[in-house]
């Protein structure tokens, strides 16, 4: 046991030992800090998510943080800047796509055949990965609730980025079939994406192409293939066979689309898993695991509190995104007052790191947090993170609790792991991990940094989303 603890200490710059404490009327939690070593964060030798199993009709996949296999950042400041740049690109892409869906038809539902191809932008940092089998080939893919199309890099590859797993070769798979250009599946995808007939020049293949607005892109052919999710076999799974892909996808094979529309993995496995999936994200970026559960048996979870459900906002109905109604936020025992709560539509997203709030809500949150945290030294802001503190040399700090309130009175406590981002290794610049949007009419985003140690349950058929506290790890 002592040797194990010593090895953990050698791999970490700053370990956070976090214990919930009571101060006043449960207004604060106590965060214990202990600097235990020097040197850079290291990627674990067990960085790839390999574990999976079936239980009670559900499939459980191990989730790892993308950074587990990455050592490309020289400092924490460099890493944070990359996170912010990636987030900004993704958010810009999300807003562009939201506006496109809003403008396509004010309140008219598209036919079921109109399936949008969408995906997240610039997948570099603070994303989460799982392993699946496609045509009996193991693939490590990024989990993305803001995407519909699942795609992997394929041979022949005219332009591909470096990945850790072997590139999928459809010519060696007996279960692979190209989707013909004149098929209903191809036509529906093309109509939905606004792409005119896009067929292969030398063969009647159904081609796809998607650019993210930041220079990243994927293009190739659509195909049917057998997908293996921890022993649950789905034949005829529609996916993108990417033959030209560019972007900082971090050595993964591609992307798993968990969006709301018919092309997503969730919709394509509706008979196996009932349109329900959930995740519990790893609390740390290194030497930490979480889980992605496909299926809805709650006895599998290890939640510490009951699951509370809030309504999904289906506006527009054909959108691939998951919208909720944020009705309030509390800092300590103080309920914030802000005009932004009167139209509190927010997007919950697995691919965005930092939560963004409309200005009226963010300013109220920032000011109240500063008031309750006023005993600690203020530090300069860092980029979009403007609420920062100097906690160097301290062994513990008392932090105001933060609670999001969603429609129906559903209260979600933000875990201490999701409160602060440590810009400096010595904790001399520690910033509140939330940021303000520019305009009041923009849609807020609940990022993955504030979803740590939560079981987040997506019930797509019931149009509801559930939250429960859970110490995330491999189930």
Reading off the top of the CATH hierarchy, the class of the largest domain is best stated as Mainly Beta
Strand composition percent? 25-35%
How many E-type strands? 30
Mean pLDDT: 79
Q: Please give the order of strands in the largest beta sheet.
A: 5-6-12-7-11-10
Overall tally of structural domains: 2
Q: Structural class of the helices, strands and pairings?
A: alpha+beta
Largest sheet: 6 strands, mixed, barrel
CATH topology of the largest domain: Cathepsin D, subunit A, domain 1
Tally of individual helices: 6
Radius of gyration: 22 Å
Low-confidence stretches: 1-26, 35-45, 105-126, 193-197
Summarize the structure in words.
With 475 residues, the chain is α+β, with helices and mostly antiparallel strands. The chain folds into two domains: 202 residues, Acid Proteases (Cathepsin D, subunit A, domain 1); 167 residues, Cathepsin D, subunit A, domain 1 (Beta Barrel). The protein is built from six helices and 30 strands. The strands form five sheets. A six-stranded mixed beta barrel has the order 5-6-12-7-11-10. β10 and β11 form a beta hairpin. The relative contact order is 0.17. The N terminus is likely disordered. One of its GO terms (biological process) is proteolysis. It comes from Dendrobium catenatum. InterPro entries: Aspartic_peptidase_A1, Aspartic_peptidase_AS, CND41-like, PEPTIDASE_A1, Peptidase_aspartic_dom_sf, TAXi_C, TAXi_N. GO terms for molecular function: aspartic-type endopeptidase activity. This is Protein ASPARTIC PROTEASE IN GUARD CELL 2.
Report a brief summary of the structure.
This protein is α+β, with helices and mostly antiparallel strands and 475 residues long.
